[in-house]
């Protein structure tokens, strides 16, 4: 706060996603976790996947391990089945969210439940603090009917996955990083304003249309497939500029969370605090301890 007034966040930098593939050849766009933006504490990776071509996703993500962090999968279109070696299984449908805490280790797969049509969504990797890296794995799945929608201003709707908007609270809570995760739809000319904890890391990723971030002369235009890294501040202000695919609202995800400010040692599917812990993760996986 400056003189009792909210300090609108400005844009530190703009990053574009990098085309890549993962799993058994699934084509995607990596936004966080690539050379331009290796991480954004506590966020380790953000992938956007979206294609109408079955050959780009049909091979899916067969069995693979994780340890030391959380994955958040948010589906916009299509159907994906999750299975893990702790007995959890579910199908992600459009509008649903899977929040998986890998903790001390699990092996899971994510495979498409369709052979044609559009598959689109996001996967975010969220770090865990050192004290929770070896916690018991946990799996949460929320269907679209469990993701509430807020209407904080005219021409603005927000699906609240985590955090709070206009008194509407999302179903997911993680005390360590205290995340906010919103799916915003903002019509051209409409403005979304929302308080954010001043020193939390934050970003806006536009996936349809164009938006602007910031107030007045500080406002920066953010286009489709661009991520705006936000400076610190007590409020975020986002305006719709051009329409999205529906001809009405631009669409974006807005994510923020408490930085952990801990050392990060990561390689592939494991994220720990030291090189020794990372090596132990490989040993434990090879010995079937996941």
List keywords for this structure.
single chain, 4% helix, 1 helix
The ordered string of helix (H) and strand (E) elements is EEEEEEEEEEEEEEEEEEEEEEEEEEH
Content of β-strand: over 45%
Average pLDDT number: 93
| Multimerization state | single chain
Q: Order the strands across the largest sheet as they lie in space.
A: 1-22-19-24-17-14-13
Number of strands: 26
Rounded Rg: 19 Å
- The percent range for helix content is under 10%
Separation, N- and C-terminal Cα atoms = 46 Å
- Stretches with pLDDT under 50, minimum 5 residues: none
Structural class: mainly beta
Helical stretch tally: 1
Characterize the largest beta sheet: strand count, sense, and whether it forms a barrel. 7 strands, antiparallel
Shape: globular
Topology diagram in text:
Blueprint lengths: L10 E6 L1 E5 L3 E7 L10 E9 L9 E6 L2 E9 L2 E5 L4 E4 L4 E5 L4 E7 L6 E9 L10 E5 L6 E5 L2 E7 L1 E2 L2 E2 L10 E7 L4 E5 L5 E8 L1 E4 L6 E3 L3 E5 L4 E8 L7 E8 L7 E3 L2 E3 L2 H12 L4
Antiparallel strand pairs: 1-22, 2-3, 3-4, 4-11, 5-10, 6-9, 6-11, 7-8, 7-10, 9-12, 13-14, 14-17, 15-16, 17-24, 18-23, 19-22, 19-24, 20-21, 20-23, 25-26
């Amino acid at each position: 706060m400056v003189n009792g007034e909210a300090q609108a966040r400005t844009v530190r930098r703009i990053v574009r996603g990098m085309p890549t593939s993962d799993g058994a050849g699934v084509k995607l766009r990596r936004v966080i976790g690539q050379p331009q933006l290796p991480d954004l504490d506590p966020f380790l990776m953000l992938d956007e996947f979206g294609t109408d071509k079955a050959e780009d996703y049909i091979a899916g993500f067969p069995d693979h391990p994780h340890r030391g962090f959380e994955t958040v999968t948010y589906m916009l279109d299509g159907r994906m089945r999750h299975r893990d070696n702790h007995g959890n299984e579910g199908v992600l449908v459009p509008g649903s969210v899977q929040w998986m805490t890998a903790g001390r280790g699990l092996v899971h797969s994510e495979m498409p439940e369709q052979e044609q049509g559009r598959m689109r969504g996001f996967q975010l990797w969220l770090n865990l603090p050192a004290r929770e890296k070896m916690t018991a794995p946990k799996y949460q799945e929320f269907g679209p009917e469990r993701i509430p929608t807020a209407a904080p201003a005219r021409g603005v709707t927000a699906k609240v996955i985590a955090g709070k908007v206009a008194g509407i609270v999302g179903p997911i809570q993680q005390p360590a990083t205290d995340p906010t995760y919103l799916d915003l739809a903002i019509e051209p000319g409409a403005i979304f304003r929302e308080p954010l904890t001043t020193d939390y890391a934050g970003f806006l990723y536009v996936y349809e249309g164009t938006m602007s971030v910031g107030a007045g002369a500080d406002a920066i235009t953010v286009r489709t497939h661009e991520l705006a890294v936000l400076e610190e501040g007590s409020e975020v202000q986002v305006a719709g500029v051009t329409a999205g695919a529906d001809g009405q609202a631009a669409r974006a995800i807005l994510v923020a969370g408490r930085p952990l400010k801990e050392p990060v040692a990561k390689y592939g599917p494991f994220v720990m605090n030291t090189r020794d812990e990372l090596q132990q993760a490989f040993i434990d996986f090879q010995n079937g301890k996941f």
